[in-house]
Amino acid sequence: MSDIAIKVENLSKAYQLGQIGTGTISRDLERWYARIRGKEDPFLRIGESNDQNTKSESDVVWSLKDINFEIEQGDAVGIIGRNGAGKSTLLKILSKVTAPTTGKISGRGRIASLLEVGTGFHPELSGRENIFLNGAILGMRKKEIQRKLDEIVDFAGIERYLDTPVKRYSSGMYVRLAFAVAAHLESEILIVDEVLAVGDAEFQKKCLGKMGEVSKGEGRTVLFVSHNMDSINRLCKNALLLSKGENVGIGKTSDIIKKYNDSDAIRNECYFKNQYIKYLKIDQIEDNVILECKYENCAEFFFPCLGFVVNDANNHKIFGTNPKLQPPQQAIIKSDKGILRVLITNPKLLNGTYNISIWFGDGTTDYFFEENILSFEILNMVRYAEDTSASDNGPIAPEVKWHQILH
Amino acid sequence: MVKEEHEWTIEADSSLFDLKLTEVWAYRDLLVLLVRRDFVSFYKQTILGPLWFFIQPLFTTIIFTFIFGNLAGISTDSLPKPLFYMAGITAWNYFADCLTKTSSVFKDNAAIFGKVYFPRLIMPLSIVVSNLVRFGVQMALFLILMAYYYISGAHFGISWAICLFPIIVILMALLGLGAGMIISAMTTKYRDLAFLITFGVQLLMYATTVIYPLSEAIKKYPAYAWIIEYNPMTPIIETFRYGFLGEGSFSWFSLGYATMVTIVLLLFGTLVFNKVERNFVDTV
Hints:
The complex is a heterodimer of chains A (about 400) and B (about 280).
Chain A: E1 4-16, H1 24-36, E2 60-72, E3 76-80, H2 87-94, E4 102-108, E5 111-114, H3 127-137, H4 142-156, H5 171-183, E6 189-192, H6 201-217, E7 221-225, H7 229-235, E8 238-243, E9 246-252, H8 253-262, E10 269-271, E11 277-285, E12 288-295, E13 305-311, E14 317-321, E15 338-344, E16 352-361, E17 366-378, H9 390-393
Parallel strand pairs in A: 3-7, 3-8, 5-6, 6-7
Antiparallel strand pairs in A: 1-2, 1-4, 8-9, 10-11, 11-12, 12-15, 13-14, 13-16, 16-17
Helix pairs in contact in A: 3-4, 3-5, 4-5
Chain B: E1 7-11, H1 21-26, H2 28-43, H3 52-71, H4 81-103, H5 105-108, H6 110-113, H7 122-151, H8 165-187, H9 192-206, H10 214-220, H11 225-230, H12 233-245, H13 252-277, H14 280-283
Helix pairs in contact in B: 2-7, 3-4, 3-7, 4-7, 4-8, 4-9, 4-12, 7-8, 8-9, 8-12, 8-13
C-alpha cells in the first residue's frame, strides 16, 4: 500500500513581525488597492528566510518557504529542526488552524491533530463530560465517543475520578486523560506536536507505545514533532528536517538525524573570540567520544588544563574528570598555543542527547568555565538486542555477566 | 467500521462563498456539547444555581420601573409598568447577549482556535443557542409576571401577533449573530471595536424601544424618531410587545424591513467570518 496520504506543494507561510495595530488600516487599504489593480501584495514582496538572530529591514518573515514533500499512507514521519525552523507552523497549517500564504496541501483521510493536550477542557466539568467535549472538539461523533469511553478511561487510568471536575485532577491525570481522548480518535492521519514532554517517564513510554501501535499496527499515518531524537528514531521510519523554514532533507530517520546533528542544530562545536579557548568540539567516533580544545595566548599558564563533566538530557551529571584526578599518560607541558584532545574510550552511553560542561585553566585557577556549552547525540554506541535509550534504564550500559546457580 | 476515504485540500485562497455548512452539520454534536458546557458551568459552585438567570432581569425591571416609570414618568402605553419593561428587557437581553458574546468569539476562544480545527461557525452558533436557554428561563419569568397581572385584573390583552413569536426569536438571534460576526471579524485586527461594543450596545438600547413606546417617541421627537424607526430591533420589540401585551406599533412593513436587514447582516457576517477565520490566529 503505497498511496500518498499527504502531498505538500510549494507551501509557504509569511508572518508579519512587530506590532500589529496602528497603521494597519492604511496598510490594509494599500494592500486592497494593489489587489484590485491586479498587482502583487506590496508588503509581501521582500521576503526572507526566518533567521531569528539577524535583524532586517523587512518586517515580513517567511516561517515556511517553498516546502515540498509527500508522505505515504501508513508511514510514521518525524519532523525535526531547531527552534523556529517552522515545525509548529507546518503542523498548524496541516491541522487547518491557520491557512498557508501560498501553496497547496492535498491529502486523503481524516486528520486528528494533537498540538496541545486538553484543548477545550473545561475545569469545572467532570472527567466524563470533558471526554465528550474534547472528543467532539477533535471531531468525534457522540456515538463514537460513547463506544470508546471505557477504552479511554482505562488508558488514562482515571476511573475513580471520572465524575470529579478536572480542576481537581493532578497535572499527570489531566495530561493522561487528554492524550487518551486524542489517541482513540478514529482517524487516518495523526499529527502530534511535542505534547508528550509533559507527562512522567512511564506515561511518555505508554504514549509512544500507543503511537507506535497506531502507525505500525493500524496502518495509520503519523506525523510527529519532537526534540527528542531518541523517540523520533524509535517511532518513525522516515524523518523530515526543516531549517529556517526550508525543507533540508527527507528520508530514512537515521540519515536525517545524522544530518541534523551535522548541521548547526545541535551545537557540538563552538568558536570563541578573546578567550584562551579558540575552539571546542565534541564528536562520537564509533564507540568513542572525542573532545577537542584549541587554545591560544597561554604563555603565562603553568600548563593548560582541561576538565569536563558530561550531563544527560535532564541535566544529571553522568561522569567527568580532569588531568589532576587522572594524570595524562604523556605529560602536558607548558605551551603558548596548541590543541588538547581527550579520548573518552567507549563510555557505553545509550542513545540520547548529552551535554558537556567545560573548565579550562592554568592548573590552579579556572579561567574558563561554561556549563553545558556543547551538546552531542549518541547513536548506536551500545548494541543491545532491543532498541534502548537513555530515558529507559539510565544513560549507561553496565557490563554484566549473568550467572545461574542451580541447587 | 466503514472506512471513509475522504479527500481534502488546503489552499492559500479559498472561495469566499464556501460557507462549509456541511462541515458544520457534521459537527452538530459539538454544538450540543458546547451549549451544555455553557449551561452547566454557569452555575457550578453557586448556591442559587440557575436562579441567577432570574435575578438580573428582575432587578433591572424594578429599577426601570422606579427610575423611568415613576421618577421620569415616561409613558408605558397604559400598560402596567413592570410588565412593559420586562417585555422589553427580556427581548433586548437576548439580542444584546448574542451580539456581545459573538463579537468577542475570536478573542475568547483564541486558545482553542489556535490549537485545533473545527468549523469556527460552531462557536457563534453555540453562543446563540446557549443564550436561547437563558432567554427561555427569562421568558418563563415574564409569563409568570403576566399571569400575576392577569389575575389582579390589570388592563392588557394578548393579540394574534403572538403567533409571530418564533419568528421574532429567530430574527433576534440571527441579527445578533450577523452583527456580532462582523464585529468579531474586525476585532481580530482592530481591538478598538471591542471597547466600542460594550458601550455601543448600551447606547443602542436607548435607541430601541425598550424603556419607552415608539408612539411616545414619534409624538415627542418627530424630527429624530427615524433613528429609532430605522433601528431593526425596534420593530422586533414592538411586535413582541404587541403580541404579548396587545399594545405597541406593529406593521408588516417595518417587520419586513427588520427581516431584510437581518438577512443582509447575516450573509455578510458569515462571509467575513469565514474569510477571517482562516488566518486570524496570526493576528489576534
